[in-house]
Specification:
Elements lengths: L10 E2 L15 E3 L2 H5 L8 E3 L12 E7 L8 H11 E10 L1 H4 L3 H6 L1 H8 L5 H7 L4 E4 L2 E2 L20 H5 L2 H4 L3 H17 L1 H5 L8 E2 L3 E7 L1
Parallel strand pairs: 1-4, 2-3, 4-5
Antiparallel strand pairs: 5-9, 6-9, 7-8
Length: about 220
């Protein structure tokens, strides 16, 4: 985003509680009244609406932005069509490449059943680029001390995944039953206690960043 510096730029995004919004956001779009109510004081105003039907006029935003949300949409083509309709200059989408993301150690070693269920909703990056009419695709490495609580944010801090508060902010856990999740978490807890995880992933312990499959798509209109 730093390469696209427009004073007074207008953004519309799938906003959640506002934790991922850039400071120049002036309008947010979020379908959940519960999440809107959790937005902190000083956040951009939020419209209660879905990506598939955004109540904004054509070409009313300089930039339309969607962060880690497209795999939750009920109608991907309609949602992308709405972003293209409201944006004047650029569309920005942060998503993940499912082929890379599913090899993340948490999914591959401890939660393969949850990953399989989640994979049914995943969207190929190339499909998104096509729907956007072309887009530049950039890899977004995750730093080891990432402060946003998305799925792979704690790749070098595995004990965090045992914290219910951390899991509550990750859609994979929120939308998968405990019958599927708990056996894998029990194995992770055991592996951390005996040092097996650290032995298996010694190569991660001194890395500064990891490519867990997150991709940024930028489409200039």
């Amino acid at each position: 985003m730093a390469t696209y510096d427009i004073i007074g730029a207008t953004y519309a995004d799938g906003a959640g509680t506002g934790s991922c919004e850039p400071p120049r956001t002036v309008l947010a779009v979020e379908p959940s009244a519960v999440m809107i109510a959790q937005r902190p004081a000083g956040s951009a105003p939020a419209l209660e609406a879905s990506a598939e039907s955004i109540p904004l006029a054509d070409n009313s935003a300089d930039v339309a932005m969607a962060l880690l949300t497209v795999h939750h949409w009920s109608d991907l083509e309609a949602g992308i069509g709405e972003l293209r309709r409201i944006a004047r200059q650029r569309i920005v989408i942060l998503t993940f490449d499912p082929d890379v993301n599913r090899r993340f150690w948490l999914l591959e070693e401890y939660l393969p059943e949850a990953a399989a269920l989640d994979g049914t909703r995943a969207v190929a990056v190339e499909q998104l680029a096509t729907l956007l009419g072309g887009a530049r695709i950039e890899t977004v490495p995750v730093p080891h001390d990432c402060t946003d609580g998305f799925r792979a944010a704690f790749w070098r801090r595995p004990e965090a995944y045992l914290d219910p508060e951390v899991r509550a902010g990750i859609s994979l856990f929120a939308q998968t039953s405990d019958d599927v999740i708990q056996p894998g978490l029990a194995r992770l807890s055991d592996d951390l206690s005996c040092g097996r995880w650290h032995q298996r992933h010694a190569d991660l312990l001194h890395r500064e960043a990891l490519d867990a499959g997150y991709r940024l798509l930028l489409a200039d209109l």
